[in-house]
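Suppose you are handed only these lines of text.
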Amino acid sequence: MVYLVLIFVCLFVCSFQLDVEVVDLSHTIGPTTISVPINPPFNFTVLERNFNERYRIWIEGNWFGMSEHTLTHVDAPAHMSMGKEYINEIPLEKLIGPAVVLDVKRKAEMVQEYGISITDLFDWERRFGRIPDGAAVIMNSGWDRRYPHPYAVFNTRNISNLETYRVPSWTFEAADWLLTNRRVIAIGVDSPSVDFYSGETLPVHRRIFRDSVIALEGVANLDSLPLHGATIYIPALKLYKGSGTPTRIFATFPKCRSFLHKLKK
Ligand SMILES: *[C@@H]1O[C@H](CO)[C@@H](O)[C@H](O)[C@H]1NC(C)=O
Ligand SMILES: *[C@@H]1O[C@H](CO)[C@@H](O)[C@H](O)[C@H]1NC(C)=O
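From them, the structure of the protein bound to 2-acetamido-2-deoxy-beta-D-glucopyranose can be written out as follows.
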C-alpha cells in the first residue's frame, strides 16, 4: 500500500518533470590517461602554480596535450570518411537526444569480443518500443570498471600490439540495420572502440560515418542510467577540423524514474 502511494506520488511529480537526475558519463582525464600507444602520450604541464607577486593572489594554469581520441570521446565522420563533417561542423541538435542503453554485461562476461547484434536491438524494442528518432544507442558491456588500467581496458598482454586487443563492440550487421532502419544521431560503446581491433577494415566506423553519424567511445557509468527515458548531452569541443574530441558526456532523466528503476531491481 505504502509502495503504491509512493509510486503514485512519484508519477505525479514525474509528470511535471520537477527535478532531474544528472549523470556524468565521462572518465577523468589524467594522471592515468590512456589511449592507444600509436598516439603521443598525454601531456599535462604545470605553467604556474604559485603565489603571483604582481596580482598578490594564488594562480594556477596548465598546458595539456592529448590525442583527440582519448578516454571518453566523440569521433566525427571526418575521422575515417574523406569530405565528411569535422567535429566543429556537427550541429548541436545532433549532439542531444534520447539515450538508448543496450545492457549486454552478462553476454560480454561469457564471450570474448562480444558484438552487439540485431537481436539485442530487437530485445530493447520489445521492452521499450521503437528506438526513438534522434537517439544515441550505446552498448553497456560493463567495460567501464576496467578503466583506467590499460591492460584491462584493451584486454591484452601486449599493449604495443593493437591486434592483440580483445574488447566488446558492435557487429557490422547491427550497426548497418540500425542506421538503415532507424534515425539515430550516435552509436556508442563503453569499451574503447566501435570496431573490434582484431578486424582489419574498421567496417562499423566507416558505416557510421557514411551516414554522417558520430561515434561515442569510452562512455562511462552507464549503470547509473535507465535503459530508456534519459536524454544524453554530448558537448564536443568545437575544434576546427577536428576528427573528434574528448568530451564530458552526460545525461539527465526525471528523478522519479531513478526511484522506479531502483524498485525494479
Ligand atoms: C609537454 O608540453 C610542454 C609544453 O608545450 C613541452 O614543453 C613538453 O616538452 C611536453 N612534454 C612532452 C613529453 O612532450
Ligand atoms: C608485442 O608487440 C610488439 C609489436 O607487435 C612486438 O614487437 C613485441 O615483440 C611483442 N612483445 C611480446 C612480448 O610478444
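What can we learn from it? The chain has a mean pLDDT of 92. Residues 43, 45, 63, 65 surround 2-acetamido-2-deoxy-beta-D-glucopyranose (ligand 1) (CB under 6 Å).
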